[in-house]
Amino acid sequence: MAPSSSSAYPGRWDHSSFVKLVAPESEYFTEAVDRFRQLCDGQKLVAIVDQKEGALLHLRLIDPANPDVANDSNVCINADLVAEGYASIDRKGCKYLNAYSGVLKKLQEAVTEAKRQRYGMFEFGDVEEDE
Predict the structure, then answer these.
(1) Residue 24 exposure: Cα atoms within 13 Å on the Cβ side
(2) Rounded Cα–Cα distance for residues 80 and 87 (Å)
(3) Contact (Cβ atoms closer than 8 angstroms) between residue 99 and residue 105
(4) How far apart are CA 31 and CA 64, in angstroms?
(5) pTM to 2 decimals?
(6) How many angstroms separate the CA atoms of 91 and 33, rounded?
(7) pLDDT at 61 > cutoff 90
(8) Burial class (CB in 10 A: 0-12, 13-18, 19+), 57
(9) What are the boundaries of each domain within the chain?
């Protein structure tokens, strides 16, 4: 999900739209990569290109087998990883974030849920950087 770490991910995964995986030095990094693989390996996913920077594609991954996709066009694996505490909203690196208000709202809801449930990196409380 992070450009410098894209080789850690299965298949062709340039850069995740809107979110960044926990840092490689985080105690949750291995879990995050494993969870990403669980969500993606062997699945037929839809990749939405939200932004292109030269050859770098910013992707939002959709699992069409997820029944929630039919009711909410902002459901995506990117938001799932945030909701599970394995990724955070990339407020500094994602310059196009505010152009996708529905996705941003979904991601904010996912962060709130992860914090409330103390999932992943939120196990011991709020670890997000100040805005």
Answers:
(1) 9
(2) 9
(3) no
(4) 24
(5) 0.84
(6) 21
(7) yes
(8) middle
(9) 3-122
